[in-house]
Amino acid sequence: MSKPEPTTPDPQYNWTPGADPKTEKEIEEFFNSREIEELKVLMCDIGRRMWQKNYVDGNGGNLTIRVGDDLVLCTPTLISKGFMKPEDMCLVNLEGEQLAGTLKRTGEVLTHIGIMKLQPNAKACCHAHPPLATGFAIAAVTPERCLTPEGEVFIGEIGIADFRWPGSPECAKVVGESGIDHVAIFMSNHGVITRAKHIEMAYWRLENLETVCSNHLITKQIMGNAAIPKIDGEDADKLFANHKTISETM
């Protein structure tokens, strides 16, 4: 008997189209189901990682996972991401109306939904304020391209969305439009948001993004006025192709 081929993890949440719970009882049962409880635990874990890495300050930052045609699991408002509990999570529809949860949903959930509505691959989003990436966002400047394979494959071109009041429909519009073609977005004078097919990848892209910004700044300090060495030619083409594949599958 031949050995099965090794596989890679696929932790995205897959729902059955057209099968969203409708009644209050169905919604509560869904919200407290084993699968959703596991996602709540994961969101708390990622929140702690964001807090430990200094990517969020105070009660800043928020996380979302799309769990249905019209359902999004999200973090609550006014809770430090480092100290959330599974029972703190909230469930909203694609208009941002809260359907379940004892705490009030994050005020910025519409921004995440703005991306999800326009980009089907966006099944999860991470918003945070990592210091270096947020500095670039405030300056509305993107780091140099093709500095490292990881940065190019997992992040690629970074989008820039003009400042709009956090959590407003206008913010959802400009960020959502940028999220169509970009997996990572600088929110001018605010922070950053990343998207993926699952929340773990969205968080990894947050780490990738902060590293890309760090690499850019450190290299500029070392090189001074000299040109920064970059990956180019056929190697760069391979990176661009890999990024396209990764962004469509992860």
In short:
The chain is α+β, with helices and mostly antiparallel strands and 250 residues long. It has eight helices and eight strands, in the order H-H-E-E-E-E-H-E-H-H-E-H-E-E-H-H.
What does this protein look like?
The chain has eight helices and eight strands, in the order ααββββαβααβαββαα. The chain is of the alpha+beta class and about 250 residues long. The longest helix has 25 residues, at about 200-225. The radius of gyration is 19 Å and the shape is globular.
Q: What's the CATH topology name?
A: L-fuculose-1-phosphate Aldolase
CATH top-level class = Alpha Beta
Q: How far apart are the termini?
A: 32 Å
Percent range for β-strand residues: 5-15%
Poorly predicted regions are none
Helix run count = 8
Radius of gyration, in Å, reads 19 Å
The tally of structural domains comes to 1
**Level of helix content?**
40-55%
Q: Would you count the extended β strands for me?
A: 8
What order do the strands of the largest sheet run in, or round the barrel if closed? 4-3-2-1-5-8-7-6
Structural class of the secondary elements?
alpha+beta
Q: Architecture in CATH?
A: 3-Layer(aba) Sandwich
Q: Give the overall silhouette.
A: globular
Mean pLDDT: 96
